[in-house]
Design a protein that fits this description.
With 839 residues, the protein is of the alpha+beta class. It contains 14 helices and 46 strands. The N terminus is likely disordered.
Length: 839
């Protein structure tokens, strides 16, 4: 497949890529439809671009841009350096993260899109002036600045983490940075790619673009990130929005190089001694993900697409008839037009096919089902809104100040300028109308943007500057999400936004962005790639990255086993959303009784885990910790299993091993350190290589010894969830003498949690000789329970803990020798409970 398309002189190829993004089936005899439709000259340009991507950089004849320190000023957490060539500012954003900005004399740098606009933590720093260097320290982190030539080195707890090699450099028309790499360090990041977890040795193009029908390899996709996380526990992220390259030791094995022809010359360094703390510092600087509405963790119905109101109502009715859980329905582009082409930009109900769209939304909401509508930033010149957009100066313009128009698959179009106040205000008016209808969330598609002519000019309202397409291409989706998030918060301040987008930038999580991994093929290889994609994005803040469950791109025939395995994996993904072209319907209710029952069972796992899942969503909100986590969060030894993508952690306590091959009856897996229990049958496993049995009803899932995991009763959607009836499972094992879990609860829908309207209930277990002390208490004793909680405590592996006491009083409990579990019921009123489990 084509990995990269040169925008210059190659709009035809881009239009062809766009043409296979929606609504068309791949002919079975074509391996690459785009290549088969391009002219010879088009292919030559693409081939040349591919050679540029893959070829190592020549030995760089570069020069440092900042050679001699002239003066400096230090105030609070900031240090300003003056050189003959320009200034360098350093700011400690947290105790362990530093933002560095190089500005050449007379330059007008583009805005920062990386940092959270609300970052305002005041860090106390000290500065030491030595003969050849300055040392700026926050206590735990230090930056050493060599005076001549100017070079920066970053230390954590007196350990060197990262050092500039040339630092800022210029080379012909290119600018960038060069850093040193240690021989043994591994590099994660760069955003959505399918290359393996360690991206070292690759030269990554940074230009967000569609990769239709990818499988188990992709060098360039919808959502790039201009930076990396190192196994040395630092994050380096460049604050540059332009088309660029990130060379991770591909040209020179010991050099990391970032280079672009435009954009801001700035970067952020975060450092720590653990991955979780590192991500916390990074997301404090770039923004924390807001809490999603709780229904976003439920089941969603989605396809390309629902072609009428009657069809959508029938789908919802079938979910209800089969008692299949459902929390949301998502409408693709047919809601505003009967055909794929010719309607984009109308952004209003096609009244022929959706005669009472507003009433449909209302009816769905009454039964707990939320409605989400798609939109795209392309407004066709044939749409009923193009003239209004042109008159309101809402579109990207050319040098003459006229709206840029161009042809692509869906028709002749302009592109909304989401960077300008005029564009933002005009575009938001359509979303405001959707909110008035009762829409619960927005879906932004094609936001790379999928077609972005180089000569298009954007007006940056925040700074009054103008920028060409290539200078801000990679933050288009980011800025679009910001527009929606800001408008949503202003229009409906008590409602949590739901914003699903295909493309963005580092820090997009602070606008509530929920990304997905694009138009993936329906193959086993494509399924196997999804763990890597979500893990890579989650490590750098985008913790809700998920896939079109079941695959998007149409295949010759429906593969039932692949479909079931993908949706079983989806039960332990951030978002459960089957989605595909509709020649094969993506909803599980349309594939026969056996498939329906298997998926209903998988959804029962997800809904029972809602208290756990919602609590790890809060961990993500407060600490940046992703929902899907690499195994090195437990076992960070640099062995062969360090880069494992065969499995992942779901929250802190569950280890999920997706089934990614057909016909599997057993598989071999090497467990991380510790003791693990089969989630389904409680069989015990130790660290190291084990053979796991596999059946079609489940995928292998394991629980860490000592884990405490709250479960909820089964439900048809989250509207039924109160959090007042819970089953608290505790997997006792002597290898884990201390364990805990903090259950998070709020109303699930409003923004009142930002004002502290929530509660956290602590569950702790401690082995004391031959008994276990199990305690329950509220984190903040001033928070009162509105209703008592009925808790069923289930102790697993309880052969030596057959009795339960509260103080000296023995409680009524049931020991099941066959299941080896101890079960008891308690009522939690908010007053601390201390239980003891004894032989």
């Amino acid at each position: 497949m084509i990995r990269k398309i040169n925008m210059t002189g190659l709009l035809l190829a881009i239009y062809l890529v766009s043409g296979f993004s929606k609504g068309q089936t791949l002919p079975s005899n074509l391996n690459n439809p785009v290549e088969n439709m391009m002219t010879a000259s088009d292919k030559a340009v693409v081939d040349k671009e591919q050679q540029l991507i893959k070829a190592p950089l020549k030995s760089p004849a570069v020069r440092s841009g900042f050679t001699q320190l002239v003066d400096y000023q230090h105030h609070d957490n900031k240090l300003m350096l003056t050189t003959e060539q320009g200034t360098i500012s350093l700011e400690f954003v947290t105790e362990n993260s530093v933002y560095v900005n190089y500005v050449l004399n007379d330059a007008q740098p583009l805005p920062s899109y990386l940092l959270d606009e609300k970052h305002n933590k005041k860090i106390v720093t000290t500065l030491e002036n030595k003969e050849k260097s300055l040392t700026l320290t926050s206590g735990s982190a230090t930056v050493v600045i060599d005076k001549s030539p100017v070079r920066l080195s970053f230390f954590h707890q007196n350990k060197l983490m990262l050092a500039e090699e040339l630092g800022y450099f210029e080379q012909d028309t290119t600018q960038g940075f060069r850093f040193k790499l240690r021989p043994e360090e591994k590099l994660f990041g760069g955003g959505q790619r399918v290359l393996g977890m360690d991206r070292r040795g690759h030269r990554l193009p940074l230009y967000n673009q569609a990769h239709y029908g990818y499988q188990d390899h992709s060098e360039q996709m919808y959502f790039g990130l201009p930076g990396v996380m190192s196994s040395d526990k630092y994050i380096l992220m460049f604050d540059n929005s332009a088309k660029a390259y990130l060379d991770l030791g591909a040209s020179q094995s010991d050099i990391l190089q970032f280079d672009s022809q435009a954009g801001r010359s700035a970067y952020l360094v975060a450092m720590s001694d653990s991955y979780q703390s590192l991500i916390n510092h990074y997301t404090h600087a770039t923004g924390k993900q807001p809490m999603p509405p709780i229904w976003a963790l439920g089941s969603m119905a989605s396809r390309f697409g629902y072609r009428s109101e009657a069809q959508a109502r029938e789908v919802v009715a079938e979910y209800q008839r089969q008692q299949m859980p459902l929390d949301a329905i998502i409408f693709d582009l047919f809601w505003f037009g009967a055909d794929v082409k010719g309607h984009m930009g109308n952004l209003d109900w096609d009244r022929t096919t959706f005669p009472t769209g507003e009433k449909m939304i209302e009816d769905f909401k009454a039964i707990g089902i939320n409605t989400i509508l798609i939109s795209e930033p392309f407004i066709l010149t044939t749409s009923k809104n193009w003239q209004s957009g042109a008159e309101n100066q809402a579109f990207a313009i050319d040098k003459a100040g006229k709206p840029v128009t161009f042809d692509f698959y869906f028709g002749n179009t302009s592109l909304v300028d989401v960077f300008s106040k005029n564009g933002q205000s005009w575009f938001w008016s359509f979303y405001q109308k959707q909110l008035d209808w009762g829409v619960a969330g927005f879906w932004g598609d094609l936001g790379e943007p999928e077609v972005h002519p180089q000569h298009a000019i954007h007006q940056l309202s925040e700074t009054g500057q103008h920028a060409y397409a290539d200078e801000v291409h990679n933050v288009y989706g980011h800025q679009w999400a910001k527009t929606l998030f800001t408008g949503f918060r202003e229009a409906s301040p008590q409602q949590r936004p739901f914003i699903m987008m295909r493309s963005g930038f580092a820090g997009s999580q602070r606008y509530g962005m929920i990304p997905w991994t694009g138009d993936v093929s329906k193959t086993w290889q494509a399924l196997s790639a999804q763990v890597e994609l979500s893990l890579q994005m989650g490590l750098l803040g985008l913790g809700y990255t998920h896939s079109d469950l079941g695959g998007f791109v149409e295949s010759e025939k429906f593969d039932e086993e692949l479909y079931v395995r993908w949706l079983q994996f989806g039960a332990f993904q951030p978002v459960f959303r089957p989605h595909s072209q509709d020649a094969t319907l993506p909803e599980p209710v349309f594939h026969g009784e056996e498939v329906s029952q298997l998926i209903k069972t998988a959804l029962s796992w997800r809904y029972q885990l809602l208290p756990y899942n919602y609590s790890i969503a809060y961990q993500n909100h407060t600490q940046g910790t992703p929902l899907m986590r690499p195994r090195f969060f437990i076992d960070d030894a640099n062995d062969d299993n360090f880069l494992d993508t065969d499995a992942y952690l779901w929250g802190p306590n569950l280890l999920v091993v997706p089934v990614t091959e057909p016909g599997i009856k057993q598989l071999e897996y090497t467990f991380p350190k510790g003791v693990w229990f089969d989630y389904w049958q409680d069989r015990k496993y130790s660290a190291g290589k084990q053979v796991l049995p596999v059946n079609k009803e489940t995928i292998p899932v394991f629980v860490k010894a000592g884990a405490i995991i709250p479960h909820a009763p089964n439900m048809l959607n989250t509207q039924a969830y109160t959090g007042n009836e819970l089953v608290i499972h505790y997997w006792f094992d002597a290898s884990a003498p201390q364990s805990s879990f903090q259950l998070y609860q709020d109303d699930g829908l409003s923004t009142q949690y930002l004002q502290g309207d929530f509660k956290q209930i602590n569950f702790t277990a401690a082995l004391n000789q031959e008994q276990v002390n199990f305690d329950i208490n509220i984190e903040n004793g001033e928070v009162k329970l509105k209703e008592n909680k009925q808790l069923k405590i289930v102790v697993h592996n309880a052969s030596h803990l057959e009795n339960a006491y509260q103080g000296k009083k023995q409680l009524t409990s049931v020991y099941d020798s066959k299941l080896n579990t101890l079960t008891l019921d308690v009522t939690f009123t908010g007053t601390d409970i201390g239980l003891t489990f004894k032989p």
